[in-house]
Each structure stands twice: as C-alpha cells, then as structure tokens.
User: Fold this.
Amino acid sequence: MSKKDGSVHTNNGSAIKRTHDEQEAERLIAIGLKALGISAVDLPKHPKGSAEKIALASVARQRTSVTNAWLAERSSMGAATRVSRYCGEAARRSDIQKFAKKIEMAIG
Assistant:
C-alpha cells in the first residue's frame, strides 16, 4: 500500500515477530539441550512425552510465542495438541520442574 509521501507500507510485523520468536526459541532449546546434556541429534530418540522434552517446550513456550505446532515439530513431540497438554503437566510434575529449573539457570 503506497502512502502519500511515496513510501510503501508493508504489514509484515507479525512475520518479523514470528521469525524472532522462532530464533529465540531455537536459542533457548540449544541452551536447554546443553544444560540437560542432550545432543540435538539425540533429541528425537527420546520419547515424545519425556520430561526433558516437556521442560524444553515449556520454557520455550513461556518465553516466546512460538506455536505448539512449531514446538511439536522442533522437539519431535508428535501432534501439536500434545504440546499443550504436556506443557500443562509441567506445573504438576516435579521431574519436569527439575529439568525446567536447570534450563532456566543455564539461560540466566
């Protein structure tokens, strides 16, 4: 859409935010993997609902606005609907809380 001054207005703010959040989530997951002693290559080998994966997804979800679908794909957690359910479990499970705390401490 052209403005009177000849400049062009683009409505790509949401695309920029999505890209930023995905980059930030990648950074958080990388820090989390290192803190938990898991390689990115080995992450898919862990069960879809493992406490480590849930902790990673929960931290990324709390600190960014990435979608459940993005988290499900990135963390090999199965369907996007599972991510929502798993992250809901995070507050009730001490094993997940322990891993999430470890990740948060590594993030600083």
Notes: Residues 5-9 have pLDDT under 50 and may be disordered. Helices lie at 13-36, 51-63, 68-75, 80-90, 94-107. Residues 13-107 form one domain.
